[in-house]
Amino acid sequence: MKAEGGAGSEKDLLETYIPYKLYIAAAAVAHLIATTYAREFDLTLPEWRVFAALGTRGELSQKSAADLVLLDKMTASRACARLLANGLISKRKDPVDARALLIRFTPKGRRFYDRLVPFAREMESKLFGQFDEGQVTKLDEMLTEVRRNATNLMEEAEAATTRGHKRERRPIPHSR
Fold it and tell me: What's the pLDDT band for 8 if we cut at 50, 70, 90?
């Protein structure tokens, strides 16, 4: 990808830097989802993400659900505790790994999820309704590729760090 703007384009970084624009768009969508699901379903965003993982994959370990939807251990634990307290999920010890807990929908949780899915699809339609099917498909493919690239770059950076190839931090230039 070629940089845009030429000389002086560093002043336009916020307007042209795609990772930043992606972050802002994702933050806006996350805020919309969080406020809407809190109002309509009394769910926090982490609870929604755990719930979506269960709806997609069925019974999972709490750790697998957290990993699938990119939640840290404590946030996932709090989300699961609230879903459990509300009778939407149940948990049991994993028969294969006694340290792990498996979570799944209760019948009440399954009914709740079945109500939530059409609402989520309607919100998705409102967000992307102005795009044709080909554009939405292309965006989906691009986002999948961006995530894959980011994951690969993180793995490379972590591998280099563990091999002792720490990158030197660049000094921050001071203005005069």
Answer: very low
Enter the DSSP assignment of 3: P
Region 124-146: mean pLDDT is: 96
Backbone angles phi, psi at 98, to 5 degrees: -60, -20
Question: Distance between CA 52 and CA 56 in Å, rounded?
Answer: 6
The separation between the first and the last C-alpha atoms of the chain, rounded to the nearest angstrom, is 33
8: left (phi over 0), alpha (psi -120 to 50) or beta: left
**In this structure, what token pair is assigned to residue 24?**
């802002």
Quick check: 167 pLDDT over 90? no
- CA angle 47/48/54 to nearest 5° reads 90
d(CA 72, CA 30): 17
* pLDDT, tens digit (0-9, with 9 covering 90-100), for 90-120: 999 999 998 888 999 999 999 999 999 999 9
- CATH class of the domain whose range is 12-128: mainly alpha
Number of neighbours of residue 168 by Cβ within 10 angstroms: 5
User: What residue has token string 């992606």?
Assistant: 22
